[in-house]
Amino acid sequence: MQQYLRLVPFGQNSHGIAHAARWYFDKPVEDLSWAEIALLSAIPQSPAAMNPSTESGRRRAVERGHRALARLRELGVLSDEASSRAEDDIDHLVIQKHPPRPRDTLHLVLLTEALTADGKKPEQIRSSVDLALEEHVTELARQRLDTLRAQGAEQMAVMVVDPKTAEVLALVGSSRYANADSGMIDYALRSRSPGSTLKPFIYAQALERGDIAPSTILIDDPDNGTGIDNADRRFLGPLLPRQALGNSRNVPAAKLIRVSGLSQTHWFLGNLGLHDGNRPAERYGLTLAVGGLPTGLDRLMTAYEALANDGALRPLKWYDGQDLPEARRVLSAQTAREITAFLADPMARLPSFARMGSTEFPFPVAVKTGTSQGYRDAWVVAYSEKYLVGVWIGRPDGRPMAGLSGATSAAMVAHDILIDLHGADSDGLADGEFRPPTGLRSATLCAATGKPSDGRCDHVLTEFMPQSPVPGALQPVSLTPSPAVAHLRIATPNNHSTFIQNPEMPAALAFLPLRLMPDAGLPQVVWYVDDRPFQVASIDETVRWPLSTGRHRIQARAPFDETRSAEVEVTVR
User: Fold this and answer.
1) Looking at residue 515, which CATH number applies to its domain?
2) Which residue among 348, 416, 429, 442 sits deepest, i.e. has the most Cβ atoms within 10 Å of its Cβ?
3) At which of 90, 106, 133 does a domain end?
4) Beta-ladder partners of 499
5) Is position 9 within any domain?
6) What domain range is 549 assigned to?
7) How many helices (H) and strands (E) does the chain have?
8) Neighbouring C-alpha atoms within 13 Å toward the C-beta of 321
9) Do the domain assignments include residue 192?
């Protein structure tokens, strides 16, 4: 009998008397009245025909309940008074109504259940999600996804967050919860390759540490010694950090990881919540710059919220009363605003991203796209002063899409959403920029040199620079001291690197590129290998040293004085 009462069907997907008591009368089974017991006892004979939520089903269940009460009276289980009261009550029982949940909220319901599974679940949960906004965002995203299905896009995830409060305003976990494309998976919480969406944090760390300044020239070249290539197989040469990030160049980002340190970069990304630290930095290497570290959309949104919030990181807020830690500073406000300015500059994205495309808006928006290897994942995170929007598009099985990048898919979804959410601001009359970094002034720099423009540069960019003590005396900041003081630092190869020779590679191609950090303050250097002079080269020249098996020490020295770089040791096998 106990097993029967645990499993017996009561209709409407309710099984067991305990669940049925909650489902129909919102009370524990111990509190059921005789009338309620009689009505529920009638249902299992035919749950569809005795459905008390329909007029005909309720009539049949009540009629059968009366017969049960009469039998209980005959058996002496019920007194005349109790029977009379139950006979009257059964005709007036109020069945609890269960209106259907709003569409596409099951991912949110399940996530909230998981967040409150520690025993601190409040009696009533009031989510920060705006259901009307979420429904509208879902429809906009579906419309755009439908136009991309022919190119292999099958699923999506979208999140909208208030950048000022970190409250989640919309969660779209999949295109539809119950469709054939694994819609029950919440893709906003799944870890996938984030492509280039981690690059802003690599640049933020380098700025914060003083490894680079906004005027530092970074070199995007093929002889970079990192093993990292650009997605378009092109190289743009000398670039300011604003341009290198705006164009999403892989080579400069990989070089910055070397300058700041692999372990330090891995730790910094973990401090932003982008990974749990379960795997060491060496597992990923320089692929941290190109999406080698898997992460989820929810984690990305948290990290980008720190950029939008002047460097203070706050966990996402899902419901009122959620127990959350205080915001903690992960970046200075100046660095966060500098990165935001980089990401919001459409001119800095040229030539890799065309003007007036999916990454450009009629109001200030900072945008970063990402595409994983083989076009398996397309990402974008974009934020204005009012909204932070993140989008992922891909396939449940992780197979490649037909050339869909972050800019040609996910960014289009975010563009549709932000334009719609901003409404009247979309007419182009909104303010033209984000809040500038405090303590800095605007300066026009020559993009090729990082120095103040003299009016003869082919390409100039407006940049934020330290306040100059004398008007017109603003000087660019570099990785190295002023050219008046020679200071040599080897950019590649990295110290303690190991290289494996390919025996099938022609000898002419089996070389190691030797390069110095820019602006070393000398016209020429002499490269030494194992304390023997190898080649005289200009300061910005890449020298090719033929690979030779064994352990070697490499150093750059000034031709006529004692200035020299630190030795770099490499092993060739």
Assistant:
1) 2.60.40
2) 348
3) 90
4) 572
5) yes
6) 490-572
7) 14, 19
8) 10
9) no
- Is 7 inside a domain boundary? yes
**Kind plus residue range of the DSSP H or E element containing 340:** helix 333-343
Calpha distance 413→112 (Å, rounded): 25
Euclidean distance between CA atoms 373 and 55, whole angstroms: 58
The vertex-306 CA angle with 300 and 308, nearest 5°, equals: 100
Q: Which of 528, 499, 532 is nearest to 516 (CA)?
A: 528
User: Quick one: tokens of 357?
Assistant: 């495309």
Please name the residues in contact with 287: beta carbons below 8 A apart, sequence gap of 6 or more. 228, 293
Q: Which amino acid is at 216?
A: T
Structure tokens at 539: 């300061």
pLDDT confidence of residue 429: 42
Give φ, ψ of 258 to 5 degrees: -65, -40
Q: Which residues contact 571 (CB under 8 A, 6 or more apart)?
A: 497, 498, 499, 550, 551, 552
For the stretch 164-209, pLDDT in tens is: 999 999 999 988 877 667 878 889 999 999 999 999 999 999 999 9
8 Å CB contact between 188 and 172: yes
Query: The tokens of 390 are what?
Result: 């993140």
Domain's final residue, options 75, 90, 105: 90
* Burial of 403 (C-beta count, 10 Å sphere; 0-12/13-18/19+): exposed
Alpha-carbon separation of residue 570 from 497, 551, 552 (angstroms): 5, 6, 5
**Number of other residues whose CB lies within 10 A of the CB of residue 257:** 24
Does 520 map to a domain?
Answer: yes
* Total structural domains within the chain: 2
Distance CA 485, CA 437 (A): 30
Put the strands of the sheet holding 388-394 in their side by side order: 168-172, 155-161, 388-394, 377-383, 366-371
Reference 303, options 418, 385, 204; nearest CA is 204
CB atoms within 10 A of CB 282: 9
Whole-angstrom Cα distance, residue 394 to residue 104?
19
Q: Model-level pTM?
A: 0.70
Give tens-digit pLDDT for 116-168.
766 666 677 888 889 889 999 999 999 999 999 999 999 999 999 999 999 99
Q: How many CB atoms lie within 10 A of CB 116?
A: 17
Amino acid at 110: L
> Would you place residue 484 in the very low, low, confident or very high pLDDT band (cuts 50, 70, 90)?
very low
CA distance 138 to 19: 33
Output the CA–CA distances (angstroms, integers) from residue 477 to 22, 216, 217, 387, 454, in the order listed. 69, 6, 9, 33, 17
